[in-house]
């Protein structure tokens, strides 16, 4: 054993191993200090009352108990769930349909793909400001268009009914390009043989879509849905820039409320508790999806 | 054989690596998470290391929120020229993140020496010994505090056992004394309609009569124009309406919200009626990207006086300011006002030099420069009256001098420890009533209970 040990330390393998670890050391230390450290620290703070200026005061589960009685917390849960349900199904279906369209041999394909992907690489803050102008009630383009069609305009962002749908529409538009790219990659991974064989058997386009494309695309769809749900639960910038959670809390999401509690009112303990509740919700939903995918995701035919 | 070796190498090297990584990270996490040592208290004017005595140049870290950044730089350069032994290191942050930075810097033991301050945060910082009392410096140098607007001085005072400012040691020396209730009007729109320009005879009722003349709603529901903007002050609050009815928002001890008293209820109902019943005021809009006054959508606007430098860029129409319309019964046209201040932190080593800067900025040459170039509402009365509130002013607003008497009689606001949170609640409930999501009764009930809960927690945190 000792001989083997010496053999190892005297070998190139040892040098390579050390070099490899040295190379990844900054990343590992960064991850521990700037991610794991704050994550663990915030777990501790979630059991304290702390305003940054005084010393944290231990108070057990009080923050979590207070959360369960906080009507605003339940409003943010409801708003966030509404946002997730509004963005994920619609965004996924639209992305799939557009991906199929952009996967065809049509002219100016690259231009269309670029147009759809452009919002993804644009700053969400800049986009939110742009949509703020579009949604302006009296002279915004959206209402001008609606009036042109003979409808009355809507006070998009100052209406408790319409503010969240307005943000959902903008977010779908913003995230569409990313999902389209993923779907296109998935579509291009489906062997043409299946389509050719189906054609020989007399299958219609609908049959091919529902019996080949959808099943073989299910791993990609699962990936898109899982990521979209995680991202949607963390929505913040749109509400921050466009409505500040208003009007009357209609667009206040969990992360916006967390930001408000932590960085506007400096209730760091309460904000940390909110963060952990959000974490638990996302983990639970993701685990459920992994369990449920066994029923509908096909990794092979 | 190779497999076993690889396994050994993996185990041993990983262990060593993990030891190093864990130790390093552990030390860094511990250092990062360590709570700051309690700041020392006291504002002794003579016990600090004085570079003035030793004539060694000293460096002061000066934090302010970023408006007119270039002009601020010129201001600091002028100070350093006048005081060559003091070098200022500026730390500029936008208003939106300034307080996050100040709090996190303090938590990390990295407070600046001098910080510009807002009444939103006076109590929090003073009660946690982050800022020091300035009274020893004031006494030593014989500073005449009667040269400052009274409210500006009391707004900077705080004493142990209090949850609001008003009495005790002066923690924030006033730089600015100003209001969120400045009444603007569009001269062109008044001329076009042939309506006499607003004057001291205006009452709340006049607002309705004149407002109706300017409000034009199209058949498709879009609005061409409104008589006035959303009837809240520049901070989105309703304090001035309440003051004019003769009421107040808090009780004397800051333990209770008094919104359900008859006078504040009258004010709240009035605000909502301007939008929904009389329909002369713009309904609340989120994130006003298009300032309704600047874009000519309203004839009259009540906004913060800080809009004056912004409105001075308007070329499309002429504008001015006028006295607030008075309450028909009480005949009061009281406005809210609040102080911007400047403080020395307890971690400042060179306190005498820091105080020199504060004196220069608030009552010396810096006060004139600050008012002329950056923020034209000095708390120092001689500077204000000789420079700003003069009747010979030619550029708009030519009637700015009207503000002087109003500021002398103004109600100081934002004196408690949780003003930001309470402000947010007030805005939500006002909007709920104006957008008819809640009745006035429901909105004021919720406002009362929510504010009382915040006050109760603030008392518990500050007084135990």
Provide a quick synopsis of the model.
Chain A is mainly α and 301 residues long. Helix content of chain A is 75%, strand content 1%.
Provide structural commentary.
The complex is a heterodimer of chains A (301) and B (464). Chain A is an all-alpha fold. Chain A has two domains: 2-45, no CATH class; 71-296, MetI-like fold. Helix content of chain A is 75%, strand content 1%. Chain A has 13 helices and two strands, in the order ααββααααααααααα. Chain A has helices at residues 2-9, 12-45, 62-69, 71-102, 109-121, 124-134, 141-148, 163-188, 192-200, 205-233, 237-243, 254-264, 268-296; strands spanning 48-49, 57-58. Chain A has a two-stranded antiparallel sheet. In chain A, a hairpin with a 7-residue loop joins β1 (48-49) and β2 (57-58). In chain A, α2 (12-45) crosses α13 (268-296). Chain A starts with a helix and ends in a 5-residue tail after the last helix. By secondary structure, chain B is an alpha/beta fold. Chain B folds into two domains: 51-179 and 338-411, 3-Layer(aba) Sandwich (D-Maltodextrin-Binding Protein, domain 2), CATH 3.40.190; 182-334 and 418-463, D-Maltodextrin-Binding Protein, domain 2, CATH 3.40.190.10. In chain B, strands 1, 2, 3, 6, 12 and 13 form a six-stranded mixed beta sheet that branches. In chain B, strands 8-9-10-7-11 form a five-stranded mixed beta sheet. A two-stranded antiparallel ribbon of chain B has the order 4-5. In chain B, α17 packs antiparallel against α18. The longest helix of chain B is centred in the first third of the chain and has 32 residues, at 2-33. Classes of the chains: A mainly alpha (301), B alpha/beta (464). Chains A and B meet through α1, α2, α6, α11 and α12 of A and α1, α4 and α17 of B.
Low-confidence stretches of chain A: none
The CATH superfamily name of the largest domain in chain B is Periplasmic binding protein-like II
* Number of beta strands of chain A: 2
CATH architecture of the largest domain in chain B: 3-Layer(aba) Sandwich
The DSSP helix count of chain A reads: 13
């Amino acid at each position: 054993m000792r001989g083997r040990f010496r053999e190892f330390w005297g070998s190139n393998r040892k040098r390579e191993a050390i070099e490899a670890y040295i190379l990844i050391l900054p990343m590992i230390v960064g991850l521990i200090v700037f991610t794991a450290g704050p994550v663990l620290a915030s777990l501790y703070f979630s059991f304290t009352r702390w305003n940054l200026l005084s010393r944290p005061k231990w108070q057990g589960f009080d923050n979590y108990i207070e959360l369960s009685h906080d009507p605003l917390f339940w409003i943010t849960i409801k708003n966030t769930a509404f946002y997730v349900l509004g963005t994920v199904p619609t965004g996924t279906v639209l992305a799939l349909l557009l991906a199929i369209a952009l996967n065809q041999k049509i002219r100016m394909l690259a231009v269309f793909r670029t147009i759809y992907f452009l919002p993804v690489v644009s700053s969400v803050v800049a986009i939110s400001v742009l949509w703020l102008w579009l949604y302006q009630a009296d002279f915004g383009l959206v209402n001008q268009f609606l009036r042109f069609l003979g409808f009355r305009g809507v006070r998009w962002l100052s209406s408790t009914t319409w503010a969240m749908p307005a943000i959902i529409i903008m977010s779908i538009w913003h995230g569409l390009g990313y999902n389209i790219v993923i779907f296109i990659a998935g579509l291009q991974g489906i062997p043409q043989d299946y389509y050719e064989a189906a054609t020989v058997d007399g299958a219609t386009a609908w049959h091919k879509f529902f019996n080949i494309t959808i099943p073989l695309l299910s791993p990609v769809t699962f990936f898109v849905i899982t990521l979209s749900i995680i991202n949607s639960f963390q929505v913040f910038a749109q509400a921050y820039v466009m409505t500040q959670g208003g009007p009357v809390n209609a667009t206040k999401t969990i992360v916006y409320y967390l930001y408000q509690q932590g960085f506007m009112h400096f209730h760091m303990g309460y904000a940390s508790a909110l963060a952990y509740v959000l974490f638990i919700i996302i983990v639970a939903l993701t685990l459920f999806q992994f369990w449920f995918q066994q029923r509908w995701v096909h990794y092979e035919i | 054989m190779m497999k076993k070796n690889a396994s050994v190498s993996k185990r041993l090297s990983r262990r060593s690596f993990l030891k190093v990584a864990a130790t390093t990270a552990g030390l860094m996490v511990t250092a990062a998470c360590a709570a700051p040592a309690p700041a020392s208290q006291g504002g002794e004017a003579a016990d600090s290391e004085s570079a003035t005595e030793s004539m060694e140049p000293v460096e002061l870290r000066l934090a302010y929120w970023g408006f007119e950044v270039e002009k601020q730089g010129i201001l600091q350069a002028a100070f350093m020229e006048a005081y060559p032994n003091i070098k200022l290191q500026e730390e500029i942050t936008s208003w939106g993140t300034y307080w996050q930075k100040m709090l996190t810097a303090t938590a990390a033991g990295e407070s600046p020496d001098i910080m510009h301050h807002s009444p939103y945060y006076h109590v929090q910082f003073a009660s946690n010994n982050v800022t020091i009392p300035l009274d020893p410096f004031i006494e030593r140098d014989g500073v005449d505090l009667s040269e400052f607007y009274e409210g500006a001085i009391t707004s900077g005072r705080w004493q142990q056992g209090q949850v609001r400012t008003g009495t005790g040691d002066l923690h924030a020396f006033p730089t600015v004394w100003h209001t969120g209730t400045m009444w603007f009007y569009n001269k062109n729109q008044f001329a076009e309609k042939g309506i006499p320009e607003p004057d001291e005879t205006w009452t709340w009722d006049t607002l309705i009569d004149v407002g109706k003349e300017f409000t034009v709603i199209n058949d498709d529901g879009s609005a061409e124009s409104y008589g006035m903007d959303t009837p809240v002050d520049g901070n989105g609050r309703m304090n001035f309406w309440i003051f004019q009815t003769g009421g107040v928002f808090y009780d004397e001890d800051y333990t209770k919200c008094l919104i359900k008293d008859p006078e504040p209820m009258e004010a709240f109902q009035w605000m909502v009626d301007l939008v929904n019943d009389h329909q002369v005021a713009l309904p609340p809009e989120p994130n006003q990207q298009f300032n309704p006054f600047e874009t000519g959508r309203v004839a009259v606007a009540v906004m913060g006086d800080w809009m004056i430098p912004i409105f001075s860029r308007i070329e499309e129409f002429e504008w001015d300011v006028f006295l607030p319309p008075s309450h028909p019964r009480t005949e009061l046209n009281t406005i809210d006002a609040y102080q911007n201040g400047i403080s020395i932190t307890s971690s400042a080593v060179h306190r005498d030099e820091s105080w020199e800067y504060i004196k220069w900025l608030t009552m010396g040459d810096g006060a004139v420069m600050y008012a002329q170039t950056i923020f034209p509402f000095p708390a120092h009365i001689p500077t204000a009256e000789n420079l700003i509130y003069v009747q010979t002013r030619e550029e708009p607003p030519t009637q700015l001098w009207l503000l002087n008497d109003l500021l002398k009689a103004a109600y100081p606001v934002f004196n408690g420890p949780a003003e930001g949170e309470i402000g947010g609640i007030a805005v939500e409930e006002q909007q709920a009533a104006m957008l008819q999501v809640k009745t006035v009764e429901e909105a004021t009930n919720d406002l009362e209970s929510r504010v009382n809960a915040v006050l109760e927690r603030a008392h518990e945190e500050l007084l135990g």
